[in-house]
Amino acid sequence: MIVGIGCDVVDHMSGKLLKWETDITILKRLLSSTEIKLFNSYKRNKIRFVAGRFAGKEAVLKCLGTGMQDGISLTEIKIIQTSNGQPSVKLSGEVQKIANLLKINTWHISITHSRSTSIAFAIAENNK
């Protein structure tokens, strides 16, 4: 059963203005250490990576019905890649507690990019 859906779009220029790809302090607020390692492995178009991850995290929060609020850290939402490059959601901390309360046990996420934007779509599911 679908518990929630979420979608978000991020303009790359906004991310550039906020120094997402160059300020490590900001990156550490947006990305987990695992995601920062992935970010560092990209040779070009790093803003797309960060914008896509940010859109994905916002989409996940929309599935949970919370949005950004006190007590929630974006680093508690990790968007990692499977061996074939497919994005996958891993939660921890307060975000995981909320997902547990909603009985969410499966996540589906898709991230895509245009020249100037990144878009993510997420589905939260209880398949038991």
Taking all Cα atoms into account, the compactness measure Rg is 14 Å
> Which structural category do the helix and sheet elements fall into?
alpha+beta
Tell me the number of structural domains. Answer: 1
What does the average pLDDT come to? 93
Largest sheet: 3 strands, antiparallel
Could you state the order of secondary-structure elements as H and E? EHHHHEEHEE
How would you classify the quaternary structure? single chain
Please provide a written account of the structure.
The radius of gyration is 14 Å and the shape is globular. Strands 1-5-4 form a three-stranded antiparallel sheet. The protein has a two-stranded antiparallel ribbon with strand order 2-3. The protein has five helices and five strands, in the order βααααββαββ. It has a single domain, classed as Alpha-Beta Complex (Ribosomal Protein L22, Chain A), CATH 3.90.470.20. The longest helix has 19 residues. The chain is α+β, with helices and mostly antiparallel strands and 128 residues long.
Quick rundown:
With 128 residues, this protein is an alpha+beta fold. It has helices at 12-17, 24-30, 33-41, 46-64, 93-101; strands at 2-11, 77-81, 87-91, 106-113, 117-125.
Write the layout of secondary structure elements.
Blueprint: E1 2-11, H1 12-17, H2 24-30, H3 33-41, H4 46-64, E2 77-81, E3 87-91, H5 93-101, E4 106-113, E5 117-125
Antiparallel strand pairs: 1-5, 2-3, 4-5
